[in-house]
Amino acid sequence: MQRLLRLVFAPPSGLILALALFVGACASAPGAIARGAPESFAPLVKNVLPAVVNIAVTETVTGNDVFADMPPELRDTPLGRQFRRRFGGKQEQVTGAGSGFIVDPSGIIVTNNHVVGRADEIIVSLTDGRQFKARVLGRDELTDIAVIKVSSPSPLPFVGWGDSRKMEVGDWIIAAGNPFGLGGSVSAGIISAEGRDLGSGPFDNFIQIDAPINPGNSGGPVFNMDGQVIGVTSTIVSPTGASVGIGFAIPSETVSAIVTQLLARGQIERGWLGISVGEVIKGIGLQVAGLDRNSPAAKAGIRAGDVLLSVNGERVETANGLIKAVAAVAPGNNVRITLRRQGRDIDIPVTVGRRPPEQAG
What we know:
Elements lengths: L1 H8 L3 H16 L13 H7 L3 E11 H7 L2 H4 L2 H10 L3 E14 L3 E5 H4 L4 E5 L5 E10 L4 E6 L21 E6 L7 E12 L9 E4 L11 E3 L5 E8 L10 E5 H14 L5 E2 L2 E7 L3 E7 L4 H5 L6 E5 L2 E2 L3 H9 L6 E8 L2 E8 L1 E2 L7
Antiparallel strand pairs: 1-2, 1-4, 2-3, 3-6, 4-5, 5-6, 7-8, 7-10, 8-9, 9-12, 10-11, 11-12, 13-20, 14-15, 15-16, 16-17, 16-18, 18-19
């Protein structure tokens, strides 16, 4: 033991040289030394927190609304039928809470659609105690983004967008919001994963974070270490309903584009072909299972049994990939669909239509 201690605390010169070479190699290797956590998040929080808002909503619900949200396995039970008979037509005012953040000093606020989508009244509270009534400027159910507006006699504090595409797994982030109604709360963590698909819709592309978020955080911002918004908190995975360290945010790459369109038009117009896909042919493409009557694809001459290879030269290998590629094209514009028919590859131009609610492709 004594010899071992001497070796550890007073190594011979040869070992010192070896250690020095090893440390030097590690120091010079690209990416070998990770950037540590900041000594304090306080300066960052002071800069961004004034632009984070609490959102209180009041909405009218009926027993039928509650019944619609009831798990399907309960609806046809005696309990479910009794609930609908007793409360189906009754109306009640309920309140809810969420978060948001100001992106323009004129009072433009970004939040989740599920926070304000059915609200009769929206009250926004700032960290300095000021309160404002807000109105909805536009919302998008498919990405769960909404834009609301308050009117203030003076410019409001605001935050800017960061680029979520530059964030990497392991990067530090700060989440801010109104968990359990406790406004002005922040939590720190890292990006745990990227590109998560939770099966909630065709445009799922969540950032997974381990910064604790809870009910009420919905619509709140996720900041990088430069104080820029790189995500909007949307949902958590939890057996208890409270944080277990797995939360999900919509990346700013998606949110900023949606916000721009909502401010310009009040709604999102997405491209649509009217195709339903069947078999995924690995490494090749998607087989067309059917087409909506009078759809853009049918009018252009696409047929059931064709195998879709690419949209405007970009390969498509999943149904969601096809939906996203077509949805990014404004209705009325043309796309080039490359497909394989009877062993031959052909290009077909298609004038994209407007995507109806809840359509597939």
